[in-house]
Prior knowledge:
The chain is of the alpha/beta class. It has two domains: about 100 residues, CATH 3.40.1390.30; about 120 residues, CATH 3.40.1390.30. It is built from ten helices and 13 strands. Strand 11, helix 8 and strand 12 form a beta-alpha-beta unit. Helix 5 packs across helix 10. The chain starts with a strand and ends in a 7-residue tail after the last strand.
Amino acid sequence: MSITSFELKTYLDSLLRTNEIADYCPNGLQVEGSSRVQKIVTGVTASQALIDAAIAKGADTLLVHHGYFWKGESQPIVGMKKRRIASLLANDINLFAYHLPLDVHAELGNNRQLGELIGASDITAAANAKPSGVVMHGKLESEHTTASLQQKLSEVLKRSVLAEGDSSAPISTVAWCTGGGQNFIEQAAELGVDAFVTGEVSEQTIHTAREMGIVFFAAGHHATERYGVKALGEHLHSHFDIDVEFIDIDNPA
């Protein structure tokens, strides 16, 4: 089966509500390639390694969470940026990228997917963090300690996880924000949950966790954001009956 790139763009922009969510980059079709879409490769970041993998797979479309043209980045298309875009253009590959709209989607988003992965129930978007869905919270299926939740996160995300807090502290409620969401720790603490999970950590995050009495986990930016774009690709496969393949480019960050 195949669809047009315009059909795909229209569907994704509507599904992910791109016109409703302010972001730091353009969401949607960033680089135009083939007008027909038959093979989609999905991945976290449009790195050269992922582009090369998409080329090797014969893909005409690349769908990612982290694309290009970020606010504040250098505008000239030179060096690494030139090589990446040249590879896409030379192989007639569309690049679709969805950042915050994919983070916050109520069913397919990174946050929803991470919540399900860690076994949370009663998943709800935090009202004190915008855009809606950028922080979610819920109850764990079974009570954990800091140490046991750290172990669970390490197992499901397949990487080491930093934990700050009493290793024996009981945890039954948790908030989370995938990726670089450490600055939402105060909003998480205001929810009254036992713990906050995100991808990255800053120096001041540890002091905030200690002083606000919330257990903190940094589980990796890449590791916590694999699952939204993977779920989105699976949805497209089911909806359009089109060939979609997720490729995970290893990244320890």
